[in-house]
Amino acid sequence: MVELSYRPSHMNPCNGGFLFHAMERADILEQFDQLGGMPEDEIDLAWAALLIAASEYPELDVVGQMEVLDSLAAGAAKGMGDDGDPLSSVNNLSAYLFDEVGFHGNEAEYYDPRNSYLNEVLARRMGIPITLSVVCIEVGKRLGIPLEGVGMPGHFLLRHRDEPGIYIDPFHRGILLSEDECAQLLRDATRTAVPWDKSYLTTVSNRELIARILRNLKGIYLNQHDHQRALGIAGLAVSLQPNIIGERRDRGLIHYQLGNHQAALEDLRIYLAASPPGVDTSDVRRLVDRIGENLDG
């Protein structure tokens, strides 16, 4: 039987203290600000994903959600063998999460924002590739199974750190894929004859994985014309990656859509100061000039 090996998941990795059961918006922003300055290897993936969820669900029991992941790991441990073989471990983990517990991809409502919130994924047992990957990574971590996110365009995947040639598709019940099958999956996902590039199977950091979840949510809310929720997500993205200047631009544009002209001006001016001249910056500069004239008038 595999032995569970992980630090107590209810501890806040930021300061060594306990996470609140529910967090105020200011607490979430403060902790995301801390995330932005953390070394990569100190970012706790589940904690960060649940901070995103707490921004939408203010009464979320964060400690309880971490304990759900602990419970899943304890359940999966019962089916693990003693040989430590990577493929065997992955197959046993997939069998538990997808066959026994019933996690699956939400194909019918792919763009439902609930698919991007970890608490909803845990409760509903379904999500999109990236959030199902978070579940696998976090349960695997608690079992000593080192899974890594793979940022293939159009379809997020996983791989075992010690089996780099085998990929895992959590959206399709954890099936194993070869590189050729990944290339076909990309063509199917994009519905185009995309030229294959092995770099598409590069692993991503926890910071980038969380950033992708935020970008997914921001895009969903913008498509729904829900600018208030998009603004909240954009604020988290700026905190997480303060050096990614495009996130500052996006937040500024959302502020503008909401009529927050002073806040829009501040973000867009920072964006222009840090960006080389181009078509995009020309458009933004014209908008900044127009906002400034309106504020002065």
Keywords:
two-stranded parallel sheet; globular; 297 residues; 12 helices; single chain; alpha+beta
Radius of gyration: 20 Å
Report strand %: 5-15%
In terms of structural class, how would the helical and strand content be classed? alpha+beta
Low-pLDDT segments, ≥5 res: 1-20
Largest sheet properties? 4 strands, antiparallel
Q: Portion of residues in helices?
A: 55-70%
* Terminal-residue CA separation: 72 Å
Total domain modules:
2
Description:
This protein has 297 residues and is α+β, with helices and mostly antiparallel strands. The chain folds into two domains: 25-201, no CATH class; 243-296, no CATH class. Helix content is 56%, strand content 7%. Strands 3-4-5-6 form a four-stranded antiparallel beta sheet. α5 (118-124) links the parallel β1 and β2 (126-127). α1 (25-37) runs antiparallel to α2 (45-56), α8 (206-223) packs antiparallel against α9 (227-240) and α10 (245-257) packs antiparallel against α11 (261-274). It is globular and about 70 Å long. The N and C termini lie far apart (72 Å). The model is unreliable at 1-20 (pLDDT under 50).
